[in-house]
Every structure is written in C-alpha cells, then in structure tokens.
Amino acid sequence: MPQIFDNIQLRLFDGLRAVLPEAEACAFCVGYLNLRGWGQLADFVERLPGGDERHACRLLVGMHRAPEEEMRALSGLRHGADIMDGPSLARLKRRITESFKTQLEFGVPTDDAEAALRRLAQQLRARKVLLKAFLRHPLHAKLYLVRRQDPVAPLVGFVGSSNLTLAGLSQQGELNVDVVEQDAAHKLQTWFDARWRDELAFDLTDELAALIETSWARTEPVRPYLVYLKIAYHLCEEAREGEREFRLPRPFRDVLLDFQEAAVALAAHHLHRRGGVLLGDVVGLGKTLMATAIARVMQEDDEANTLVICPPKLQPMWEGYLEQYQITGRVLSLGKVIEALPDLPRYRLLIIDESHNLRNREGRRYRAIRDYVERNEPRVVLLTATPYNKQFTDLSNQLRLFVDEDQDLHVRPERFFQRWTQDGKTEAAFIAQFQTSTHALRAFEHSPFPDDWRDLMRLFLVRRTRQFIIKHYAKFDEAKQRYYVMLNGQPAYFPRREPKTVTFAIRQEDPADQYARLFRDEVVGVIANLALPRYGLANFLVQNA
C-alpha cells in the first residue's frame, strides 16, 4: 500500500530523507524551484558523485502560464498545438531566468539563505545538480525519483502536489504518495527521461550558477567603489533617460551651453513623466532661456502651446523670447491672473516665472492658478532661484500647483517614519490621524527632516549651483586664471568676484551724522550681543514677561 504524505501526519521531506542517504542519482520535476529552500536537500545531494546525469540530481523545472495568458490562450482562435518559434523560446528562457533573479533579489538576506545559495552554486558547477527548463508546453507536474543501491526497491518515486519549496516539502497541506512498485516507478522514470531529453528542454545549469555568483550571496565580496558606482548609476537614471529621449530644437543648437542643454533634457523628462518640474538653478545660469527651449521642445513634440505667468517687470522680456524663438503662446502678468485666468482657453504648457511668489497656497493668486491647472491639466514648469525660504512647505506649496496632495509619489519620508515607529506608533495610526497615504505629498509636510525633502525634490527639481557648473562643465584658462565654457567655438568666461571695500567719512563730532551715531561703541556692542532667530520672532516671546 502506498503511503500518503500530506505534511500533517507524514511530511514529504521525511519520506525523501529516508531514501536520499543511499541515493546514487535522483530526478526531480517541479513547477517551481525555491532557491533559498535548497538547504533542505543540499547535504543529501552533496553525497552524489556528480559529473554526469547518471550520478547527479537532475532538476526539471516547468513553465506555467500566468492567469491572463491562460485566458488569452483559451479565447484564441487556434486550438491546436502551440507553434514555438525562436523569439517565443527566447522570451520563455528569459522569463524563467528572470524569475530566478527575482527570487535572489526578493526578501531579507539571511545567513541560512546565503549558505544554501552558495552550496547550490557549488553543486551546479560540480555538476552534482543539473538544471533544465521544459518549454514545450506548460508543465506543472511534481515528481521526485531516487535511484539507490537497494535489492528490493532500487527506484523510489514520490508523486503529488508538492513543489520544491520549504512549504511544499514540510509545512503547507499537500497530497503526495510514494511509488515503490518497480514497474510503476520505471514508467515514471521513462516519463521523466522523455521530457528531460526533449529538444525544448534547455540547460540552465551555468546560467543559474552565474546568477547566484553575481548576487548578494556571492563568495567574493564586491569592491566598495563598484557599489558606489552602481548607486550613482541608479540615482542618475532619470537624467540618462532624459538625454537619450531628448532632441534639442534647431534654433537652440548654437545658443544653449552644454549644462543648459542637459537641464532642458532632464526637465523635459520630468514633464513627460510627472507632469511638472521645478527649474531652480541659481541666478545667472539662464533659466529663462532654458524654459523657452523646453517650450519649443513641447511645441515640436506634442504641438503644445504655452502660457507664461511672470511678474509685470518680466513680461516684455518673455514676450520677446516667445517671438524670437517662434513659440505659440501668451504672456500673462502675475497681477492679472485672478481676472484673466478664468476666461483663458487651455494651454498645454504653463511656465510660472519667479514661482517663489506662490509659496502661500491661501493667497488669491495661488488659488486662481491652481484652479486653472485643475481645469486644464497643463504640464507645469516652475522657475525660481530661491525655491526654499523659511520652511519646507515653501517647496510643497509650489509643487501643489501641479501635484495632487494625495497622489502616490512612490516615495515616502523615511526619516519621519523611523522616528514615528520609534515613538511606538504604526503607519496605520498615521493614516488614521492625518487621513492621507504614507507616500503622498501631505505625508512629507509632516516631516522636519531635510533628507526626506531631498528625496522628494529629487523627483521634480533641476538645480545646479555655479560651483557645480564650474566643476563638471567648465575648463580652466591658465593664462587668464579663469574658468570658461565654449559657446559657438568661443570661450565664455565666468565672472570673477572681487570683493572691494568702500570707505566713507564719518563725522564723530556731528550729532546729525546718522552713520556716526550708528557706529558708536555702545550701539555696536548691543547689536553684537543680540541672539535672535532669523524668522518668526513672535514664536519666541516669553509669556507674561
């Protein structure tokens, strides 16, 4: 009578453990292979001689369709055998390899998992374990065959529902039976061999070993410098993508400097991906010209017209830029937005110059612009050299012009939530108290930590300082001892700041000389001893003093 292994009264792992110590070879067919769970069987497999199929553990992993693929197959017009062409095979091989890679990347690394993975890689290289992926058709069978030196039952099989995972072998409810009768066991061996030798069963032994050896479980430590390079590579991913997708309009090819072109490329990427960008380069780096180039990019790529909102003194300059670079659009003074915006048609790109003037979201001008954005959904470019003044909400209020306060930003204020959990509070308590997601803009507004705000602004901000430009884009003229960048083949020098002292006469004996009175020793002493906060003096009043 066969034994039933349901992981309740009898565990399948115990059945395998009873026969594997005497094994000369084994053959497993599973629908899923848990790489980290290999440690359960690694000691038994280590005893195998290895080297070829007759003395190794052969692992055959089947491919099963995702539910949506199964529905497409059932509803298709063709009901015969699937025709497996070259691209389809390559896609399936890539998918199963990616599934192994995902396993390695998922979850918290542990010492036990590291030891199991390293052991598996060694056994793959020693050919004690041979791995194939069966791709002819979806295969979800579970079969474990063990060949051993035994006069009564040299071939033992186990058939049922258990995959090669910790749960499947030991924990979750399953249904498996052993096959000790030799005729039935040899029929199972024949079934396995036919699929193992199928021309669409591809060997992945070396591929899996290489994946493990280049993962976190590798035996050779990674050089810290390479880790640093990989971090830098991923942090600048959006900048690289922006440059790949970007084409500078012809009128700007001999006008923009290299650092300006890079900013336009990254800003255009942010616009397409997130609907808005804050261009915050310091004064004098050409934000107006860069924003004009962005408008021309949007006009050529998306046929977008442009609305520019700016302070009154900048209106003539902007009108000149739009005319010079043939931008279809309009310039509106910030002082007229309340009256004009409700009646304006839709503009697909909105540029707001000096956007730091809109730090207060309770203001009437702010609400008028926000209402226009909500109605017309333009992409938004904010220009300011001083995005942050007194408090972090200066930043979030500007972002709120085009970012919904409850939108999932796919990033959260990690330092804030570290402090939150240290205080014994849960994320659920935060959501209940503030009625917002942990990944929303409103969540960041509760964080006092600068690093959280840096993580947020990295999604929307393009900002370079003069020293950054000099370090990464400029060359040094030894003769003139000045930095420069090239424009149309000619050097454009950075201005050199030379502080100068301006002196003026003070008539100490004249009581009407206000400067003489200001610089008296007693006045200078009082000022020198002051210790006042820069902003918000009223917050530091002593009550009842």
Structure description:
The chain is of the alpha/beta class. Among the domains are: 4-213, Endonuclease Chain A (Endonuclease, Chain A), CATH 3.30.870.10; 235-403, Rossmann fold, CATH 3.40.50.10810. 42% of the residues lie in helices and 15% in strands. The protein contains 23 helices and 17 strands. The chain has helices spanning 12-19, 39-46, 67-75, 86-105, 111-125, 166-171, 182-196, 205-213, 224-235, 237-245, 258-274, 287-302, 315-324, 337-340, 364-376, 393-399, 414-422, 427-434, 441-444, 450-457, 466-472, 514-518, 521-528; strands at 4-5, 23-30, 57-62, 129-134, 143-148, 155-160, 176-179, 201-203, 276-279, 306-310, 329-333, 349-353, 379-383, 461-462, 475-477, 482-487, 490-493. The strands form three sheets. It has an eight-stranded mixed β-sheet with strand order 1-7-6-5-2-3-4-8, sandwiched between helices. Strands 11-10-12-13-9-14 form a six-stranded parallel β-sheet, with helices on one face. Strands 15-16-17 form a three-stranded antiparallel β-sheet, with no helix packed on it. Strand 12 (349-353), helix 15 and strand 13 (379-383) form a beta-alpha-beta unit. Helix 2 runs parallel beside helix 5, helix 4 (86-105) packs parallel to helix 8 (205-213) and helix 10 crosses helix 11. The longest helix has 20 residues, at 86-105. The N and C termini lie far apart (94 Å).
